């Protein structure tokens, strides 16, 4: 082979190789955004961010996935509690410090951002996150994030999961949050959120789960919540919510878990909450609810838990409770109930603690009347 020919071949192979690499690799802009994101984090025990090296961020970068066609970064999934063998080998769960760099906002084809359960990541959620047009999942649970929920969060029209639970996020729920019209799961439990739940929260028509327990929310429960047809799981417990329980909550079609315990709710228990055959878990404990317990249980009532303890309920225990298909845990203690405890199921199974500290209840399992 002549020199020229060989030179040509070598050159051609080099060009082909370069083309192949370029076609497989992530774009330089995504690559540099990821390196900036990595630079703001420190993961000392497992070394997973050490895999973020080399030109092709779409291959073998731990937790990074690209769209196979466009080669754009689509998902970042970094979970500090996971079944991944890396964690098993290290014999520990994940720990990371540092912060979430705003450079993540340059990944404009990102659909999933999960940076969960690293315990030590602090700083604020970059507000530019609200301008990631394709974001569907934002899960930053279990870190030490502070500051506020970005005011523009409502711009994320494709967002289905917003999970910021177990952080130190403060401030109000931004009014724009009601514009998240694809949102299915809203999880903000265990933060320092203050202020009221927006009265038009009912606009979140796709929402099936709203978990806001353990914050410092005030104001009343918006009536509009009852308009959310798909809402199955509502937890507003351990806040400072006042006012009465909207009667409309009693006629929600798929509501199955309702936790409103440890608030400052007043007024009566809506009849529908006890008559609704879909509700299986009801905790209204530690409020200032008053009035009689509605006698509305029936053959379709199926409760794994009813906790009405620590309220100001009066009157007697409804006899219809023994008509229920199933009552698991029942706690009526610390109220002002009076009169004979009905007989039959579930009363033949419950302990005295379920009825303790009332005004004048009697009969099994308490003393005879
Ligand atoms: C209901 O809520 C109270 C107060 O927040 C809590 O102590 C109790 O364990 C809960 N009941 C059930 C059955 O989970």
TrEMBL record:
UniProt GO BP: defense response; response to other organism
InterPro entries cross-referenced by the UniProt entry: DNA_repair-toleration (IPR053211), Leu-rich_rpt (IPR001611), Leu-rich_rpt_typical-subtyp (IPR003591), LRR_dom_sf (IPR032675), LRR_N_plant-typ (IPR013210), LRR_R13L4/SHOC2-like (IPR055414)
SUPFAM superfamilies: L domain-like
Position of the signal peptide: 1-25
Principal localisation: membrane
Pfam short name (any one): LRR_14
Keywords of this entry: Glycoprotein, Leucine-rich repeat, Membrane, Repeat, Signal, Transmembrane, Transmembrane helix
Ranges for domain Leucine-rich repeat-containing N-terminal plant-type: 29-67
A GO cellular-component term linked to this record: membrane
Annotated protein name in UniProt: Uncharacterized protein
Subcellular localization, as worded in the UniProt entry: Membrane
Annotated Disease resistance R13L4/SHOC-2-like LRR domain residues: 122-295
Domain of life: Eukaryota
Organism: Erythranthe guttata (Yellow monkey flower)
